[in-house]
Amino acid sequence: MLDFRKLMVQIEQVGSDSFDDTLSARNALENGKKVFSEAIQSQEAFVQRLQADMGWTLWPVALPLEDLLQADVVPLCRDPVTVVGVDGSQIMPSHHEVHNCFLLNIGSAVITYGAKQPALLESEPRLYHRPEDLYPLVDRRRLHIDELYVSLERMLLEFDTLVTLSLRAQQRGVPVIALVDGSLIPWSLEKMPDSYQDLYLQRMSSAIEELQMASIPLIGYLSHSRSSDVVNDLRVFACPYDSSHCRDYCGDINEEDFPCSSIWPLTDRQLMARSLNFGQRTGSFLSGASVAKRLAADHRVCFCYLHVGKEITRLEFPRWLLGDRTLFHLALSAVLSQVDKGMGYPVCLAEAHHLAVIRGPDRQRFFELITRQLVSVGVSTVKLSPKESRKRTSFI
Question: CA 232 from chain center: how many Å?
Fold first, then answer.
């Protein structure tokens, strides 16, 4: 339990520290706005600098695919459309519990607007308990799964569910938009063995291709994004050296002392807050994340920022969607309408989250049911580990 009397002394320091942080952030924002304005006025030079230096920076470079700021305003969607949203959660495996297993729970929402179609709100649990689930074969060796592995498998299951529901919804005869909560880029994948990375990207590409063949836009919705891809691009543009060879010029100093760090730390969302009005968006960028580069050209992840009212949100989508401007604009319009109806967050993703989330009582009941089943089939050693048992009780 927390000793709040001791904690308050540390909390009081937060106020004074945050004041200093605010001043630093304000300076970074003003500097960032100045460099961003220069990049808009000299976009050709900006892109050329990025292309010339993208192999030398300490961070991935995102390449602009459109004008940095779009003059057109995204309208609220007035056409009939079906939105499909998915989200997931998990119960992690623990050898301290009565049985070593894990559970993935995928919540989904299929909602049609402008046509009389029933909404579908449901969750689908999937239990993994077999040896091949708990010790999957990777590079001919059995892998001891951890939270990273389970999270990646959950993302793939979300993709599979999204594709199945979207294709089924398309049979209603209304255009479909597919949404996932969070990034389309599997940032943590590079921590896994190479063969698992290859298999993951194959399965991800297969899901994207099915949606592409059916002309169903795929959008990853990131609320309150901490991404700084555009800011990092501006750091390259602001670099005072002839080339942004970070290791040669700045390899022996801390990042806060880099010449380009006058606009760091700053997020793209903070940078765009005063540049965009409601319904306006930035241009689209091609992500430079190394794991995203391994996808097929049409499946490479792109992103833009859209002012949805209460925040600047980051939207991610496969590159093929930019080639179909009608579908692209429909997707943006549908997302904006979802946020408007949800009073700050897409309705379908909010509903999918509520269906997916596993709360404390659900977790407790899950393991109670596991215990009953094990006892009913005659397993005599059904008990918690001594550590877990002692954590749940106290002598004092």
Answer: 19
